[in-house]
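Table S2 (text version). Query chain:
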Amino acid sequence: MKNLEILQKNIKKLSYEEAISELENILINVQDENISLDKIKNNYIKGHMLLKHCEELLQIVEQEINEIDPKFLDID
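Corresponding structure-token output:
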């Protein structure tokens, strides 16, 4: 349980691009035929956390975009 908390804290520090890169690495790892069941489980948990983090970051950006007042953009 403590390890999951540490993993979650480390993931929260990642940028969107870094998290996507980690997800890509997990995808490469799970395609290995010699991967152990334990490694599959760990990759699944980490992948789920990374995906959730990316979704949260995207929601924040979407909210920021929705809050932009068009008057300040000086669009003609």
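Notes on Table S2: The mean pLDDT is 90. The chain is about 75% helix and 0% strand.
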